[in-house]
């Protein structure tokens, strides 16, 4: 294992940051190395200057009112506290989207000068130097296709929100960016900014082009980069997955809702689970335990004395705006 206390995983939205962070966390754990993955939307995140919707809105208001220097100073203080605490810890921390994401992509849409953003990143680099950080940058050559895929993946109003966020920002308005093409231009420009920062970042680092979606290969490349032993997948035959397929009910907001476990090709997907994107893949960890892809959640299927699946429990880290913790009762099919 490399001599590091911190693994930073970066890239634009949809580049696979949380997917890789989850994989790295699992690899470290299986290797007997104490670690902690802080998912970018996790509650009580050690680097965030907000902790709930009200404080988040206050931060946004300060930024949009031109008070970004104040926010930069507050965030740099958080980085300093984080670095000092981690230096005396035996735990390796994995962060996704905190260096080039978080404040960096909050400053960019406000049209903050690039040199000021680079100055902020340089200060963070110096703060993190004692941790010997490892930086992994994920990217796709075709930005338009990458954005299309993430909008399809997350569903709902993701595309319209992404377009509005880019084109209605100060950066987008000044450049008269419009529609999907304007959003693509916005993220291309942002990528240029962070790739400049990546090239200047003084740390162990690797850039990984992952357009092909060959995650087994990418994960192995990262394992090699981190100098971890080769990892084996959980030995759960896909033929066993049919056992878990079905409709599960849960209670939320005073009503009953349905959640589906479906078999798609050689893997399970979950659809309709709180705090989870539509049609999200489940990753087997053991016979009846699955990780929810890209999220800090785990599903455990429960059986009765006869081996019949009667329900499942979802557990995991609390997020800023909710939790995945629920018990789901399997709906028995009528005969």
UniProtKB/TrEMBL annotation:
InterPro entries: NPHP3-like_N, P-loop_NTPase. Residues 3-75 form the Nephrocystin 3-like N-terminal domain. Gene3D superfamilies: P-loop containing nucleotide triphosphate hydrolases. Keywords: Repeat. It comes from the Bacteria. The keyword Repeat applies. This is Nephrocystin 3-like N-terminal domain-containing protein.
């Amino acid at each position: 294992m490399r001599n590091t206390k911190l693994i930073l995983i970066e890239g634009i939205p949809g580049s696979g940051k949380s997917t890789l962070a989850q994989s790295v966390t699992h690899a470290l754990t299986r290797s007997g190395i104490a670690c902690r993955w802080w998912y970018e939307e996790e509650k009580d995140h050690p680097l965030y200057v907000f902790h709930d919707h009200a404080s988040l809105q206050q931060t946004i208001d300060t930024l949009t009112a031109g008070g970004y220097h104040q926010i930069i100073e507050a965030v740099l203080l958080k980085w300093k506290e984080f670095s000092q605490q981690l230096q005396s810890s035996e735990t390796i921390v994995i962060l996704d989207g905190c260096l080039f994401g978080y404040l960096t992509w909050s400053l960019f849409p406000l049209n903050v000068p690039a040199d000021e953003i680079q100055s902020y990143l340089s200060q963070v680099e110096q703060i993190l130097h004692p941790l010997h950080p490892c930086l992994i940058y994920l990217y796709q050559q075709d930005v338009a296709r990458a954005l299309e895929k993430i909008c399809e993946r997350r569903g709902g109003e993701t595309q319209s929100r992404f377009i509005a966020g880019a084109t209605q920002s100060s950066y987008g308005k000044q450049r008269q960016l419009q529609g999907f093409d304007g959003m693509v231009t916005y993220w291309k420009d942002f990528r240029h900014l962070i790739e400049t920062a990546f090239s200047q970042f003084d740390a162990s680092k690797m850039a990984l082009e992952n357009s092909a979606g060959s995650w087994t290969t990418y994960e192995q490349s990262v394992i090699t980069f981190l100098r971890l032993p080769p990892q084996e997948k959980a030995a759960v035959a896909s033929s066993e997955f049919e056992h878990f397929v079905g409709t599960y009910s849960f209670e939320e907001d005073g009503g009953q809702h349905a959640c589906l476990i479906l078999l798609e090709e050689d893997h399970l997907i979950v659809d309709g689970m709180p705090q989870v994107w539509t049609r999200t893949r489940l990753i087997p960890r053991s016979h009846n335990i699955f990780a929810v892809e890209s999220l800090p959640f785990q599903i455990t299927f429960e059986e009765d004395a006869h081996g019949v699946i009667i329900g499942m429990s979802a557990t995991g880290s609390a997020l800023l705006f909710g939790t995945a913790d629920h018990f789901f009762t399997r709906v028995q099919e009528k005969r």
